TrEMBL record:
CDD domains: CYP90-like. It holds the Pfam family p450. Belongs to the cytochrome P450 family. The keyword Magnesium does not apply. This is Cytochrome p450. One of its GO terms (biological process) is brassinosteroid homeostasis. It is found in: Membrane. PANTHER family: 3-EPI-6-DEOXOCATHASTERONE 23-MONOOXYGENASE CYP90C1, CYTOCHROME P450 26. InterPro entries: Cyt_P450 (IPR001128), Cyt_P450_CS (IPR017972), Cyt_P450_E_grp-I (IPR002401), Cyt_P450_sf (IPR036396).
Amino acid sequence: MKIKTSSSSSSSESHDSCKIPKGSSGWPFIGETLHYIASGCSSHPVSFMEKRKSLYGNVFKSHLLGIPIIVSTDPDVNKVVLQNNGSTFIPYYPKSITELLGKSSILQMNGNLQKKVHGLIGGFLKSSQLKARITKEIEKSVFLSMDSWKDKELVYMQEETKNITFPVLVKVLMGVDQAEDLEFLKKEFGEFIKGLVCLPIKLPGTRLYKSLKAKEKLLKMVKRIVEEKRLNLERIRTQESDQMDAVEVLLGDTAESLPLDFISGNVIEMMIPGEESVPMLMTLAIKYLSDCPLALKQLLEENMVLKRQKNQLNEEDYVWTDYMSLPFTQNVISETLRMANIVNAVWRKALKDVEIKGYLVPKGWCMLVSFLSIHMDEENYENPYQFNPWRWQSKQGHAAVNYNSFTPFGGGQRLCPGVDFSRLEVSIFLHHFITSYRWEAEEDFIVNFPTVKMKRKLPIRVTPISPSQLNKNHNTHHNERIQSL
Protein backbone atom coordinates (compact mmCIF):
# COMPACT_ATOMS: atom_id res chain seq x y z
CA MET A 1 0.00 0.00 0.00
CA LYS A 2 1.39 3.40 -0.96
CA ILE A 3 1.46 6.49 1.21
CA LYS A 4 1.12 9.98 -0.29
CA THR A 5 2.33 13.10 1.47
CA SER A 6 2.33 16.84 0.95
CA SER A 7 4.30 19.42 2.88
CA SER A 8 1.44 21.93 3.06
CA SER A 9 -1.92 21.33 4.66
CA SER A 10 -3.45 23.57 1.97
CA SER A 11 -2.55 21.22 -0.86
CA SER A 12 -5.65 21.12 -3.05
CA GLU A 13 -4.60 17.81 -4.56
CA SER A 14 -4.58 16.18 -1.10
CA HIS A 15 -7.97 17.53 -0.15
CA ASP A 16 -9.51 16.65 -3.49
CA SER A 17 -8.27 13.07 -3.61
CA CYS A 18 -9.32 12.11 -0.08
CA LYS A 19 -11.02 13.50 2.99
CA ILE A 20 -10.55 13.51 6.74
CA PRO A 21 -12.32 10.41 8.10
CA LYS A 22 -15.82 10.83 9.47
CA GLY A 23 -16.34 11.04 13.19
CA SER A 24 -17.25 13.26 16.10
CA SER A 25 -15.29 15.86 18.04
CA GLY A 26 -17.51 15.40 21.09
CA TRP A 27 -17.86 18.10 23.73
CA PRO A 28 -15.87 21.36 23.64
CA PHE A 29 -12.39 20.98 25.16
CA ILE A 30 -12.88 17.46 26.57
CA GLY A 31 -13.97 15.92 23.26
CA GLU A 32 -14.70 12.20 23.65
CA THR A 33 -12.06 11.63 26.34
CA LEU A 34 -14.53 10.63 29.05
CA HIS A 35 -16.12 7.99 26.82
CA TYR A 36 -12.66 6.69 25.90
CA ILE A 37 -11.59 6.39 29.56
CA ALA A 38 -14.92 4.85 30.60
CA SER A 39 -14.51 2.19 27.92
CA GLY A 40 -10.99 1.40 29.14
CA CYS A 41 -12.24 1.02 32.71
CA SER A 42 -15.07 -1.30 31.70
CA SER A 43 -15.11 -5.06 31.22
CA HIS A 44 -15.34 -4.45 27.46
CA PRO A 45 -12.52 -1.96 26.69
CA VAL A 46 -12.99 -2.17 22.93
CA SER A 47 -16.53 -0.72 23.16
CA PHE A 48 -15.34 2.84 22.37
CA MET A 49 -13.83 1.61 19.10
CA GLU A 50 -16.67 -0.74 18.20
CA LYS A 51 -19.39 1.91 18.53
CA ARG A 52 -17.55 4.37 16.29
CA LYS A 53 -16.53 1.71 13.78
CA SER A 54 -20.22 0.87 13.34
CA LEU A 55 -21.01 4.56 12.71
CA TYR A 56 -18.02 5.79 10.72
CA GLY A 57 -15.95 2.81 9.54
CA ASN A 58 -12.58 1.33 10.51
CA VAL A 59 -10.84 4.73 10.47
CA PHE A 60 -12.55 7.66 12.18
CA LYS A 61 -11.79 11.04 13.71
CA SER A 62 -12.24 11.94 17.36
CA HIS A 63 -10.94 14.37 19.98
CA LEU A 64 -9.01 12.76 22.85
CA LEU A 65 -6.88 14.18 25.65
CA GLY A 66 -7.25 17.69 24.29
CA ILE A 67 -6.17 17.05 20.70
CA PRO A 68 -7.86 16.21 17.37
CA ILE A 69 -7.02 12.64 16.48
CA ILE A 70 -7.64 9.99 13.85
CA VAL A 71 -8.18 6.48 15.18
CA SER A 72 -7.29 3.50 13.00
CA THR A 73 -8.68 0.02 13.57
CA ASP A 74 -7.65 -1.07 10.07
CA PRO A 75 -4.67 -3.50 9.90
CA ASP A 76 -3.50 -2.15 6.53
CA VAL A 77 -3.57 1.48 7.67
CA ASN A 78 -1.82 0.55 10.92
CA LYS A 79 0.95 -1.18 9.01
CA VAL A 80 1.59 1.91 6.89
CA VAL A 81 1.74 4.19 9.94
CA LEU A 82 4.06 1.87 11.87
CA GLN A 83 6.44 1.54 8.94
CA ASN A 84 6.62 5.28 8.17
CA ASN A 85 8.33 6.74 11.22
CA GLY A 86 10.64 9.71 11.26
CA SER A 87 9.95 11.54 8.01
CA THR A 88 6.16 11.21 7.97
CA PHE A 89 5.06 10.24 11.48
CA ILE A 90 6.78 10.83 14.80
CA PRO A 91 5.87 9.35 18.20
CA TYR A 92 3.42 11.27 20.32
CA TYR A 93 2.78 10.63 24.00
CA PRO A 94 0.75 12.24 26.81
CA LYS A 95 2.51 15.05 28.63
CA SER A 96 3.09 13.00 31.79
CA ILE A 97 5.19 10.52 29.78
CA THR A 98 7.20 13.19 27.96
CA GLU A 99 7.87 14.99 31.25
CA LEU A 100 8.97 11.82 32.98
CA LEU A 101 11.15 10.35 30.24
CA GLY A 102 12.77 13.58 29.05
CA LYS A 103 13.75 14.94 25.64
CA SER A 104 16.48 12.35 24.99
CA SER A 105 14.08 9.43 25.45
CA ILE A 106 14.40 6.77 22.77
CA LEU A 107 10.58 6.59 22.68
CA GLN A 108 10.47 10.16 21.39
CA MET A 109 13.73 10.16 19.46
CA ASN A 110 13.82 10.11 15.65
CA GLY A 111 16.32 9.79 12.86
CA ASN A 112 19.69 8.09 12.73
CA LEU A 113 20.34 8.10 16.47
CA GLN A 114 17.10 6.24 17.16
CA LYS A 115 17.90 3.69 14.45
CA LYS A 116 21.41 3.27 15.81
CA VAL A 117 20.39 2.68 19.44
CA HIS A 118 17.47 0.46 18.43
CA GLY A 119 19.78 -1.59 16.22
CA LEU A 120 22.45 -2.01 18.88
CA ILE A 121 20.01 -3.07 21.60
CA GLY A 122 17.93 -5.18 19.21
CA GLY A 123 20.98 -7.07 17.98
CA PHE A 124 22.13 -7.62 21.56
CA LEU A 125 18.78 -8.92 22.85
CA LYS A 126 18.22 -11.18 19.85
CA SER A 127 21.70 -12.70 19.90
CA SER A 128 22.01 -16.43 20.54
CA GLN A 129 25.02 -15.67 22.77
CA LEU A 130 22.93 -13.62 25.18
CA LYS A 131 20.13 -16.20 25.22
CA ALA A 132 22.60 -18.99 25.96
CA ARG A 133 24.13 -17.04 28.85
CA ILE A 134 20.96 -15.61 30.35
CA THR A 135 18.94 -18.85 30.27
CA LYS A 136 20.63 -19.91 33.52
CA GLU A 137 19.86 -16.55 35.12
CA ILE A 138 16.18 -16.83 34.21
CA GLU A 139 16.00 -20.41 35.53
CA LYS A 140 17.68 -19.34 38.76
CA SER A 141 15.20 -16.51 39.25
CA VAL A 142 12.22 -18.82 38.57
CA PHE A 143 13.48 -21.43 41.06
CA LEU A 144 14.14 -18.82 43.77
CA SER A 145 10.64 -17.45 43.41
CA MET A 146 9.00 -20.89 43.45
CA ASP A 147 11.02 -21.91 46.53
CA SER A 148 9.49 -18.99 48.43
CA TRP A 149 5.96 -20.35 47.89
CA LYS A 150 6.31 -23.24 50.34
CA ASP A 151 4.89 -21.39 53.33
CA LYS A 152 2.41 -19.20 51.48
CA GLU A 153 -1.30 -19.96 51.60
CA LEU A 154 -1.86 -17.72 48.56
CA VAL A 155 0.62 -16.86 45.85
CA TYR A 156 -0.05 -13.54 44.09
CA MET A 157 1.15 -14.17 40.57
CA GLN A 158 1.33 -10.54 39.50
CA GLU A 159 3.87 -9.87 42.26
CA GLU A 160 5.75 -13.16 41.92
CA THR A 161 6.32 -12.72 38.21
CA LYS A 162 7.84 -9.30 38.86
CA ASN A 163 10.16 -10.93 41.39
CA ILE A 164 11.23 -13.29 38.62
CA THR A 165 11.79 -10.76 35.83
CA PHE A 166 13.33 -7.80 37.66
CA PRO A 167 16.68 -9.38 38.67
CA VAL A 168 17.08 -10.80 35.16
CA LEU A 169 16.25 -7.45 33.57
CA VAL A 170 18.76 -5.51 35.67
CA LYS A 171 21.43 -8.14 35.00
CA VAL A 172 20.90 -7.90 31.24
CA LEU A 173 20.83 -4.11 31.16
CA MET A 174 23.52 -3.19 33.70
CA GLY A 175 25.15 -6.37 35.00
CA VAL A 176 23.88 -5.62 38.53
CA ASP A 177 23.24 -8.60 40.80
CA GLN A 178 23.98 -7.34 44.34
CA ALA A 179 20.93 -7.78 46.57
CA GLU A 180 21.20 -4.29 48.08
CA ASP A 181 21.44 -2.60 44.67
CA LEU A 182 18.58 -4.70 43.31
CA GLU A 183 16.33 -3.74 46.22
CA PHE A 184 17.09 -0.04 45.77
CA LEU A 185 16.47 -0.16 42.02
CA LYS A 186 13.24 -2.10 42.44
CA LYS A 187 11.88 0.32 45.06
CA GLU A 188 12.68 3.51 43.15
CA PHE A 189 11.65 2.09 39.79
CA GLY A 190 8.27 1.09 41.24
CA GLU A 191 7.77 4.68 42.39
CA PHE A 192 8.99 6.09 39.07
CA ILE A 193 6.70 4.03 36.84
CA LYS A 194 3.53 5.03 38.71
CA GLY A 195 3.74 8.45 37.06
CA LEU A 196 3.67 7.33 33.44
CA VAL A 197 -0.09 7.85 33.23
CA CYS A 198 -1.12 10.72 35.52
CA LEU A 199 -2.06 14.38 35.51
CA PRO A 200 0.93 16.45 34.24
CA ILE A 201 1.21 18.54 37.42
CA LYS A 202 4.66 18.82 39.04
CA LEU A 203 3.71 20.39 42.37
CA PRO A 204 5.16 18.79 45.54
CA GLY A 205 3.03 15.85 46.66
CA THR A 206 1.59 15.11 43.22
CA ARG A 207 2.09 11.76 41.49
CA LEU A 208 4.31 13.22 38.75
CA TYR A 209 6.47 15.07 41.28
CA LYS A 210 7.06 11.87 43.30
CA SER A 211 7.92 9.95 40.15
CA LEU A 212 10.37 12.61 38.98
CA LYS A 213 12.11 12.47 42.38
CA ALA A 214 12.34 8.68 42.11
CA LYS A 215 13.87 9.05 38.64
CA GLU A 216 16.51 11.41 40.05
CA LYS A 217 17.55 8.69 42.51
CA LEU A 218 17.58 6.07 39.77
CA LEU A 219 19.67 8.26 37.50
CA LYS A 220 22.22 8.87 40.23
CA MET A 221 22.81 5.15 40.69
CA VAL A 222 22.70 4.25 37.00
CA LYS A 223 25.10 7.07 36.10
CA ARG A 224 27.56 5.71 38.67
CA ILE A 225 27.34 2.26 37.07
CA VAL A 226 27.77 3.70 33.56
CA GLU A 227 30.73 5.82 34.68
CA GLU A 228 32.45 2.80 36.27
CA LYS A 229 31.99 0.83 33.06
CA ARG A 230 33.30 3.71 30.95
CA LEU A 231 36.54 3.68 32.95
CA ASN A 232 37.00 0.11 31.76
CA LEU A 233 36.13 0.99 28.17
CA GLU A 234 39.18 -0.64 26.59
CA ARG A 235 38.48 -3.90 28.41
CA ILE A 236 34.84 -3.75 27.30
CA ARG A 237 35.78 -3.25 23.66
CA THR A 238 38.11 -6.26 23.69
CA GLN A 239 35.94 -8.69 25.66
CA GLU A 240 33.68 -11.28 24.10
CA SER A 241 30.27 -9.88 23.11
CA ASP A 242 28.44 -12.72 24.87
CA GLN A 243 29.74 -11.38 28.21
CA MET A 244 28.40 -7.85 27.75
CA ASP A 245 25.35 -6.15 29.21
CA ALA A 246 23.32 -3.45 27.43
CA VAL A 247 25.29 -0.55 28.95
CA GLU A 248 28.55 -2.10 27.76
CA VAL A 249 27.09 -2.64 24.28
CA LEU A 250 26.24 1.07 24.04
CA LEU A 251 29.59 2.15 25.50
CA GLY A 252 31.55 -0.26 23.35
CA ASP A 253 30.25 1.04 20.01
CA THR A 254 33.25 2.59 18.31
CA ALA A 255 31.33 4.46 15.61
CA GLU A 256 30.04 7.16 17.91
CA SER A 257 30.50 8.02 21.58
CA LEU A 258 27.10 8.30 23.22
CA PRO A 259 26.77 10.77 26.14
CA LEU A 260 26.64 9.16 29.59
CA ASP A 261 23.42 10.99 30.51
CA PHE A 262 21.82 9.70 27.32
CA ILE A 263 22.84 6.09 28.07
CA SER A 264 21.72 6.32 31.72
CA GLY A 265 18.30 7.76 30.91
CA ASN A 266 17.59 5.25 28.18
CA VAL A 267 18.68 2.27 30.28
CA ILE A 268 16.03 3.29 32.82
CA GLU A 269 13.53 3.60 29.98
CA MET A 270 14.39 0.10 28.74
CA MET A 271 13.34 -1.23 32.13
CA ILE A 272 9.72 -0.21 31.52
CA PRO A 273 8.59 -2.90 29.04
CA GLY A 274 10.73 -5.54 30.70
CA GLU A 275 9.32 -4.86 34.15
CA GLU A 276 5.71 -4.21 33.19
CA SER A 277 4.91 -6.17 30.04
CA VAL A 278 6.68 -9.50 30.62
CA PRO A 279 5.37 -10.08 34.19
CA MET A 280 1.83 -9.33 33.00
CA LEU A 281 2.27 -11.70 30.08
CA MET A 282 3.28 -14.46 32.52
CA THR A 283 0.42 -13.62 34.89
CA LEU A 284 -2.25 -13.54 32.20
CA ALA A 285 -1.00 -16.79 30.68
CA ILE A 286 -1.73 -18.42 34.05
CA LYS A 287 -5.10 -16.67 34.19
CA TYR A 288 -6.16 -17.91 30.74
CA LEU A 289 -4.79 -21.42 31.32
CA SER A 290 -6.73 -21.60 34.60
CA ASP A 291 -9.90 -20.96 32.62
CA CYS A 292 -9.02 -23.42 29.83
CA PRO A 293 -8.19 -26.90 31.22
CA LEU A 294 -7.85 -28.42 27.73
CA ALA A 295 -5.09 -25.96 26.79
CA LEU A 296 -3.35 -26.52 30.13
CA LYS A 297 -3.49 -30.28 29.61
CA GLN A 298 -1.84 -30.08 26.18
CA LEU A 299 0.72 -27.57 27.43
CA LEU A 300 1.65 -29.83 30.35
CA GLU A 301 1.95 -32.84 28.09
CA GLU A 302 4.27 -31.02 25.69
CA ASN A 303 6.49 -29.74 28.48
CA MET A 304 6.59 -33.11 30.23
CA VAL A 305 7.91 -34.70 27.04
CA LEU A 306 10.85 -32.28 27.17
CA LYS A 307 11.39 -32.90 30.89
CA ARG A 308 11.43 -36.69 30.44
CA GLN A 309 13.82 -36.45 27.50
CA LYS A 310 16.23 -34.51 29.68
CA ASN A 311 15.92 -37.09 32.48
CA GLN A 312 16.41 -40.05 30.15
CA LEU A 313 19.55 -38.51 28.68
CA ASN A 314 20.81 -37.55 32.16
CA GLU A 315 20.95 -33.93 31.03
CA GLU A 316 20.30 -31.57 33.90
CA ASP A 317 21.04 -28.45 31.88
CA TYR A 318 18.54 -26.96 29.46
CA VAL A 319 19.61 -24.73 26.59
CA TRP A 320 17.54 -21.86 25.29
CA THR A 321 16.59 -23.72 22.12
CA ASP A 322 14.95 -26.45 24.25
CA TYR A 323 12.38 -23.97 25.50
CA MET A 324 11.83 -22.19 22.20
CA SER A 325 11.31 -25.48 20.31
CA LEU A 326 7.97 -26.19 22.05
CA PRO A 327 5.32 -25.22 19.47
CA PHE A 328 2.20 -25.32 21.63
CA THR A 329 3.96 -23.29 24.32
CA GLN A 330 4.64 -20.60 21.72
CA ASN A 331 1.00 -20.79 20.62
CA VAL A 332 -0.11 -20.19 24.23
CA ILE A 333 2.19 -17.17 24.45
CA SER A 334 0.90 -15.75 21.13
CA GLU A 335 -2.71 -16.20 22.16
CA THR A 336 -2.04 -14.56 25.54
CA LEU A 337 -0.42 -11.61 23.78
CA ARG A 338 -3.42 -11.27 21.47
CA MET A 339 -6.02 -11.34 24.23
CA ALA A 340 -4.10 -9.43 26.88
CA ASN A 341 -3.33 -6.37 24.73
CA ILE A 342 -0.77 -5.20 27.28
CA VAL A 343 0.23 -2.51 24.77
CA ASN A 344 -3.19 -1.66 23.36
CA ALA A 345 -2.21 1.16 21.00
CA VAL A 346 0.51 3.59 19.96
CA TRP A 347 0.23 7.29 19.20
CA ARG A 348 1.83 9.05 16.23
CA LYS A 349 1.81 12.64 14.95
CA ALA A 350 1.79 13.56 11.24
CA LEU A 351 4.60 15.91 10.14
CA LYS A 352 2.81 16.65 6.87
CA ASP A 353 -0.48 15.90 5.14
CA VAL A 354 -0.67 12.14 4.69
CA GLU A 355 -2.99 10.08 2.48
CA ILE A 356 -3.51 6.43 3.40
CA LYS A 357 -6.08 4.17 1.77
CA GLY A 358 -8.24 7.13 0.74
CA TYR A 359 -8.06 8.87 4.12
CA LEU A 360 -6.43 12.24 4.82
CA VAL A 361 -4.41 12.75 8.00
CA PRO A 362 -3.78 16.52 8.19
CA LYS A 363 -0.39 17.87 9.21
CA GLY A 364 -0.16 18.23 13.00
CA TRP A 365 -2.96 15.76 13.70
CA CYS A 366 -2.30 12.66 15.78
CA MET A 367 -3.14 9.07 14.95
CA LEU A 368 -4.05 6.43 17.47
CA VAL A 369 -3.02 3.07 16.01
CA SER A 370 -5.20 0.59 17.87
CA PHE A 371 -3.93 -2.96 18.43
CA LEU A 372 -6.73 -3.85 20.85
CA SER A 373 -9.55 -3.39 18.35
CA ILE A 374 -7.79 -5.46 15.68
CA HIS A 375 -6.89 -8.32 18.04
CA MET A 376 -10.50 -8.51 19.23
CA ASP A 377 -12.20 -8.14 15.83
CA GLU A 378 -14.12 -11.19 14.62
CA GLU A 379 -13.15 -10.29 11.04
CA ASN A 380 -9.54 -11.01 11.98
CA TYR A 381 -10.04 -13.77 14.59
CA GLU A 382 -12.88 -16.23 14.89
CA ASN A 383 -14.48 -16.03 18.36
CA PRO A 384 -11.93 -13.38 19.43
CA TYR A 385 -12.93 -13.43 23.10
CA GLN A 386 -12.21 -17.15 23.39
CA PHE A 387 -8.74 -18.24 24.52
CA ASN A 388 -7.78 -20.54 21.67
CA PRO A 389 -4.05 -21.35 21.31
CA TRP A 390 -4.89 -23.82 18.52
CA ARG A 391 -5.73 -20.92 16.19
CA TRP A 392 -1.95 -20.37 15.82
CA GLN A 393 -1.24 -23.83 14.41
CA SER A 394 -0.23 -23.73 10.76
CA LYS A 395 -2.75 -25.33 8.43
CA GLN A 396 -1.58 -27.24 5.38
CA GLY A 397 1.67 -25.31 5.26
CA HIS A 398 0.01 -21.90 5.54
CA ALA A 399 0.16 -19.48 8.44
CA ALA A 400 -2.94 -19.77 10.57
CA VAL A 401 -3.04 -16.01 11.30
CA ASN A 402 -2.50 -12.94 9.14
CA TYR A 403 0.40 -11.29 10.92
CA ASN A 404 -0.70 -7.83 9.73
CA SER A 405 -3.46 -8.38 12.30
CA PHE A 406 -1.07 -9.33 15.11
CA THR A 407 0.98 -6.45 16.50
CA PRO A 408 1.47 -6.92 20.28
CA PHE A 409 5.05 -5.59 20.01
CA GLY A 410 4.33 -2.76 17.55
CA GLY A 411 5.94 -2.80 14.14
CA GLY A 412 8.27 -1.12 11.68
CA GLN A 413 11.59 0.32 12.83
CA ARG A 414 10.18 0.72 16.36
CA LEU A 415 9.29 -2.94 16.78
CA CYS A 416 10.09 -3.83 20.38
CA PRO A 417 13.72 -5.10 20.34
CA GLY A 418 13.00 -7.52 23.20
CA VAL A 419 10.48 -9.71 21.33
CA ASP A 420 12.56 -12.90 21.33
CA PHE A 421 13.96 -12.32 24.80
CA SER A 422 10.46 -11.87 26.23
CA ARG A 423 9.25 -15.12 24.69
CA LEU A 424 12.25 -16.98 26.12
CA GLU A 425 11.55 -15.68 29.65
CA VAL A 426 7.89 -16.67 29.49
CA SER A 427 8.71 -20.08 27.98
CA ILE A 428 11.15 -20.89 30.80
CA PHE A 429 8.68 -19.75 33.46
CA LEU A 430 5.78 -21.75 32.02
CA HIS A 431 7.87 -24.91 31.62
CA HIS A 432 9.06 -25.06 35.22
CA PHE A 433 5.86 -23.78 36.78
CA ILE A 434 3.39 -26.13 35.12
CA THR A 435 5.66 -29.19 35.51
CA SER A 436 6.21 -28.43 39.21
CA TYR A 437 2.80 -27.32 40.49
CA ARG A 438 -0.89 -27.79 40.25
CA TRP A 439 -2.85 -24.69 41.15
CA GLU A 440 -6.27 -23.31 41.75
CA ALA A 441 -6.88 -19.66 40.87
CA GLU A 442 -9.24 -17.55 42.94
CA GLU A 443 -11.71 -15.34 41.11
CA ASP A 444 -10.09 -12.23 39.69
CA PHE A 445 -10.69 -9.68 36.95
CA ILE A 446 -8.57 -7.89 34.38
CA VAL A 447 -8.42 -4.10 34.68
CA ASN A 448 -7.53 -2.39 31.39
CA PHE A 449 -7.04 1.25 32.41
CA PRO A 450 -4.67 3.04 32.75
CA THR A 451 -2.63 -0.13 32.12
CA VAL A 452 -3.49 -3.84 32.07
CA LYS A 453 -3.49 -5.31 35.60
CA MET A 454 -5.28 -7.95 37.65
CA LYS A 455 -7.64 -6.42 40.19
CA ARG A 456 -6.47 -8.79 42.98
CA LYS A 457 -3.01 -9.58 41.52
CA LEU A 458 -4.26 -13.09 40.63
CA PRO A 459 -4.11 -15.07 43.89
CA ILE A 460 -3.61 -18.83 43.42
CA ARG A 461 -3.21 -21.84 45.73
CA VAL A 462 -0.34 -24.07 44.66
CA THR A 463 0.30 -27.77 45.32
CA PRO A 464 3.64 -29.35 44.37
CA ILE A 465 3.41 -32.19 41.85
CA SER A 466 5.10 -35.40 42.99
CA PRO A 467 7.04 -37.59 40.54
CA SER A 468 4.42 -40.34 40.92
CA GLN A 469 1.66 -37.90 39.91
CA LEU A 470 3.62 -36.91 36.82
CA ASN A 471 4.01 -40.54 35.80
CA LYS A 472 0.31 -41.10 36.36
CA ASN A 473 -0.51 -38.07 34.21
CA HIS A 474 1.80 -39.33 31.50
CA ASN A 475 0.16 -42.77 31.44
CA THR A 476 -3.30 -41.19 31.34
CA HIS A 477 -2.35 -38.97 28.40
CA HIS A 478 -0.76 -41.95 26.63
CA ASN A 479 -3.93 -44.07 27.01
CA GLU A 480 -6.14 -41.20 25.86
CA ARG A 481 -4.06 -40.84 22.73
CA ILE A 482 -4.35 -44.55 21.95
CA GLN A 483 -8.14 -44.43 22.43
CA SER A 484 -8.44 -41.46 20.09
CA LEU A 485 -6.62 -43.26 17.24
